[in-house]
Amino acid sequence: MTRARFTPLIASLPSTVPFVGPETLQRDRGADFVARLGANESAFGPSPRAVEAMREADAEIWKYGDSSSHDLRHALAQKYGCPADCVIVGEGIDGLLGNLVRLTVATGDAVVTSEGAYPTFNYHVAGCGGTLHKVPYRDDHEDLAGLLRMAADCNAKLVYFANPDNPMGSWHSGASIAAALEDLPEGALLVLDEAYLEFAPAGTEVPLPLDDPRIIRLRTFSKAYGLAGARVGYALAHPDLIAAFDKVRNHFGMNRSAQIAALAALRDEEWLAKVQGKVKAARNRVGEIARENGLLPLPSATNFVAVDCRRDGEFARALLSALLEQGVFLRMPAPPPLDRCIRISCGLPAELDALAGALPKALRHVTR
Amino acid sequence: MTRARFTPLIASLPSTVPFVGPETLQRDRGADFVARLGANESAFGPSPRAVEAMREADAEIWKYGDSSSHDLRHALAQKYGCPADCVIVGEGIDGLLGNLVRLTVATGDAVVTSEGAYPTFNYHVAGCGGTLHKVPYRDDHEDLAGLLRMAADCNAKLVYFANPDNPMGSWHSGASIAAALEDLPEGALLVLDEAYLEFAPAGTEVPLPLDDPRIIRLRTFSKAYGLAGARVGYALAHPDLIAAFDKVRNHFGMNRSAQIAALAALRDEEWLAKVQGKVKAARNRVGEIARENGLLPLPSATNFVAVDCRRDGEFARALLSALLEQGVFLRMPAPPPLDRCIRISCGLPAELDALAGALPKALRHVTR
C-alpha cells in the first residue's frame, strides 16, 4: 500500500483509460494491423514541410519549448484575424479539455454532453467530480436544442458539443448553432469541439466572433494537419477565459519540435487542400465498400465514416472483433442506438483495399 | 467577460507563469542570447542516436503515441530491475508533479517544501488549493529533518525534496535520506525529485526498493539525456500509486517521437557518460570563472553551479540583469539568504567563454 493519501474524489474514481490505444491492441494481438482505421488519424501524413521543420528542430530538442508557444499562437491569431490573447496552444484538444474542466468544474457541478459523445471529455469531468447529464442523439446528430434545454434544467457550467460530430460524422450549419446559442443559459459555456472542422463543408464554422463570451472553440493539428503524435491543439475564446488557462496548465508542457512542426503545417495550405481531397475520395470509397456489403454509410463531414450495420450493437461489436482478427482496426460508438454503427477512418487506398477484402469475410463470420 | 463560471478555487488564483521562458526574455530583449545558461538544459545535446531515432519516427508523427508508453516504460523497468507497474511516463517531471498533486491535495491540505525550492511544484499545489508550509534551507542544503518535523506538525500529505537540489546544487547521501525516512509521518509521501541524479556522485541514490510505499521518485530525460524540449519524465513508485495516475493523466499526452527518442537515449550509455564528463569539466570551468571574479562557487552535484556573490539579493539580481543585457541568460534563487547566489548552467565552452567575458563588466557595472 502506498503512503499516498488520495483526495476523497480521487479515491472514488476508477483507474481507467478513455481509449485502448492501437499499440496496446497490436501487442495483445501479437501482430501489426493491416489497416489502422480506428483512431481517425491522417494516414496521408502531415505536410512534408512540417516533417522537415520538425526534423530540423530536433537538433535543438535539448532546449525547452517556448512556454507561451508564441510563434504558433501569433500565426493562428493572424490566420483568424483575432488578437493573440484569444488563442491558447496545448497538448492536444484532450489536454485543453482537461484544463478547461479543471477551471470550471468542482465536485457536484453539472455538465451536459451527448450520450455517446467524446469519452475523454467525460473522463475529465469525472476527474473533477462533475456530474454528467447526457442527452441522446437525434437522428444521428447531436441535439443542440436538447442539450441547451438540459443545460438550463441542471444549471450546467459546460455544454460539450462537437461540430462536426465524432463518432457519427454528422454536422450542423454554423448559422443554426449561432441561432441556437440565443438559448444558451446565462451561466453555461459552450465547449465547441471542432477537431474535424477542416473536413466539413463551407458554412459549418460558427459565424460569431472568436471572443464571443458564450463559446470556447477547440481545434487541433491531429486530424487534417496529420500531426496526432505531436500533440498540438489550440483553443479560441474570450481573452478572460484564455488567460485563466495559465492558472492550471503545464506551462512548459509543449514539445519544442511539435510547436515548430505545427507552424510549418499551418503555412502549407496546399498540402491541407490535398489532404482534404484525399479524405473526400476515401470517404466515397468507404461508402462504396459499405454499400457493396449491404451496409449503410452515413453522411460525414469528418475524416471517417460511421457505417450503419442495420443490426444491433451486439452484431456491430462482433463485426468489429472479426475485423480486428484480420488486422483491420476500427472503433465504434458505445451506446444504442449509435452502436448499430462501426466507425471507419479515411485511410490509405491500400488500407481500404484491405478493408474491402476483410469485410465480407467478417460479415460471413458474424452472420453464421 | 467570458461566460465561464470558474470554480471558487480557480477564481481565487492568479494567472501566472512559474518561470519566464528564455524565448520570452529574448523577444523582450530583441536579440538572441550569447550564452543560454539559465534553464539547466544540456547544451551538449542528446545522444545522436536519440536524434536519429526521433527523426525517423517523425515520418509517422500522424499516428498517436502509445498511450501507455509501453516500450519506454518496460525499458526503464528493466534498467531498474522493477516491475513495469512501478513506472509511469509523463510530460516531464512538471506534468507528473501536476498529476501527483491532483491525486493527493484538495483545498486546505497541507504540503511541505523548502523555502526557495522548485516553484512549479508550488504552482501545482496552489492550483489544487493546498497550503504550502516552507522550511528554510540549512547551510545551502534542503533540511530533510526539518521538512519531516514540519510534515508531522502540519499533517502534510506531500513532502517535496529534491536530491540533488535545485537551485543550490547541493545533495545528501542516499543512505542519510533512507535513515531520515524513519521519521516520515504515517500519512505523508516523500516526493523525491531526482531530475539531476545522473550528475551526482555515487551514493546519492536512495538505497530503498523502488516500490517503497513512502516515496515517489521523479526522473527526467530533460537534463542528462538532453531532451528537455521533448517533454519526457517518469516516476518510480509503489504500483498502487502509479496506477492512480490513470485517474487524472492525459492518456494520449505523450509525443510519439519523444517516446522513441527517450528509449534510444536510455540505451546510449556511452553518450550519457560523455555528457557527465563534459558537465564535470564545465562545472570546474564555471568555478574558475567565479573565483577569478572574486565570487564563491558552491559544490554542485548537478549540471549547474550556484555561485555565491557574497553580497545581498539586490546585488545578485542587479548582476543577473547586467549579464542579461550582455546576452548571458542566468537564473537565481528567489528568497534570502539563497538569493545571494546566481545559478549558472553547465553550457558549452564558447558559452562559458562569453560568461567569462561578460562577468567582469557586469560586476563593474553593478558595483559602480
TrEMBL record, chains A, B:
SUPFAM superfamilies: PLP-dependent transferases (SSF53383). Keywords: Aminotransferase, Pyridoxal phosphate, Transferase. The keyword Transferase applies. InterPro entries: Aminotrans_II_pyridoxalP_BS (IPR001917), Aminotransferase_I/II_large (IPR004839), HistidinolP_aminotransfase (IPR050106), PyrdxlP-dep_Trfase (IPR015424), PyrdxlP-dep_Trfase_major (IPR015421), PyrdxlP-dep_Trfase_small (IPR015422). Residues 36-359 form the Aminotransferase class I/classII large domain. The keyword Coiled coil does not apply. Pathway: Amino-acid biosynthesis. Pfam families: Aminotran_1_2. Gene3D superfamilies: Aspartate Aminotransferase, domain 1 (3.90.1150.10), Type I PLP-dependent aspartate aminotransferase-like (Major domain) (3.40.640.10). Its cofactor is pyridoxal 5'-phosphate. Signal peptide: none annotated. GO terms for molecular function: pyridoxal phosphate binding; transaminase activity. Belongs to the class-II pyridoxal-phosphate-dependent aminotransferase family. Histidinol-phosphate aminotransferase subfamily. PANTHER family: HISTIDINOL-PHOSPHATE AMINOTRANSFERASE, HISTIDINOL-PHOSPHATE AMINOTRANSFERASE 2. This is Histidinol-phosphate aminotransferase.
